[in-house]
């Protein structure tokens, strides 16, 4: 069974930091692009960040550029999202994914809440 399991979410004050992790199991994700989307209450899901299979390329939404850093450890089938200088607008459920859009696996999500 293919699974992606996120962890690391929680409640943090504005300006603080969190590190999300997403661990894959059930197949080899090391050849897949991996990344993160988020969805806030009442809003559409939005792209946050992505990383190529070997970590050589990274992509960020403008809203998080300079504050968030995506990385991966293929030996552990895990992708990370380091989130610094968090803002109230970063409050959302964060979902990781693996694979191209045609065949994409998703995690259940982890809640990130930023308080003032």
Describe the secondary structure blueprint for this structure:
Layout: E1 3-7, E2 10-13, E3 18-25, E4 34-39, E5 46-51, E6 58-60, E7 68-73, E8 78-83, E9 92-98, E10 105-106, E11 110-115
Parallel strand pairs: 2-11
Antiparallel strand pairs: 1-3, 3-8, 4-5, 4-9, 5-6, 7-8, 9-10, 9-11
Which key terms come to mind for this protein?
116 residues, mainly beta, seven-stranded mixed sheet, 51% strand
> What structural category do the secondary elements indicate?
mainly beta
Quickly count the helices.
0
Strand count = 11
User: What is the first-to-last residue Cα distance?
Assistant: 40 Å
Radius of gyration: 13 Å
Query: Strand count, sense and closure of the main sheet?
Result: 7 strands, mixed
Give the SSE string: EEEEEEEEEEE
Question: Would you kindly provide a written description of the structure presented here, covering whatever features stand out?
Answer:
The protein has no helices and eleven strands. It is globular, with a radius of gyration of 13 Å. The strands form two sheets. Strands 2, 4, 5, 6, 9, 10 and 11 form a seven-stranded mixed beta sheet that branches. 0% of the residues lie in helices and 51% in strands. Strand 7 (68-73) and strand 8 form a beta hairpin. It is an all-beta fold and 116 residues long.
């Amino acid at each position: 069974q293919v699974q992606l399991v996120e962890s690391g979410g929680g409640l943090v004050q504005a300006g603080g930091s969190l590190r999300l992790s997403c661990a894959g199991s059930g197949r080899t994700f090391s050849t897949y692009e991996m990344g993160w989307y988020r969805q806030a209450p009442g809003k559409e899901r939005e792209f946050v960040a992505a990383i190529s299979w070997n970590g050589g390329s990274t992509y960020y939404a403008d809203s998080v550029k300079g504050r968030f850093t995506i990385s991966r450890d293929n030996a552990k089938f895990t992708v990370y999202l380091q989130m610094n200088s968090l803002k109230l607008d970063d409050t959302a459920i964060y979902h990781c994914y693996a694979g191209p859009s045609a065949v994409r696996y998703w995690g259940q999500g982890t809640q990130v809440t930023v308080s003032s």
